[in-house]
Amino acid sequence: MTQTSDRIGEDEDAPGVVKKFMFVNRKAPYGTIYALEGLEVVLISAAFDQDVSLAFLDDGVYQLVKGQQTKGLEVKNFSPTYRALEGYDVEKLYVEREALEARGIREDQLLVPVQVVSAAEMAELMEQQDLIVGF
What we know:
The chain is 21% helix and 18% strand. It is an alpha/beta fold. It has one domain: DsrEFH-like (Hypothetical Protein Ychn, Chain: A). Strands 4-3-2-1-5 form a 5-stranded parallel sheet. α2 (97-102) links the parallel β3 and β4. The radius of gyration is 17 Å and the shape is globular. It starts with 19 loop residues before the first strand and ends with a strand.
């Protein structure tokens, strides 16, 4: 007997089913590969028409700061790539208010428009996701 699509337990991984992915960035942008790898995974996920959002917590907020100079580190500055997210329909960028305040960063110092939320609001957003991936 085959299972019909209107039954409970329908295959949620079937083609065409949109999942909510939240990528959580907690690491500084340079010195490790985490931030760059995370950005690449976000772009790939968005290309597959998934509901993608990004959260920036802890030192991850540094990934969005304008004017980063990486020449002395001898690594490519990938920060401008965050501006390309809108072209991939990735428009849900959340930054934890407490992380910004603890690091003395203002919202106007960030590369792209974000929604600044409290830690409690961030937890609520995370509860709404199908998958959370941390970097």
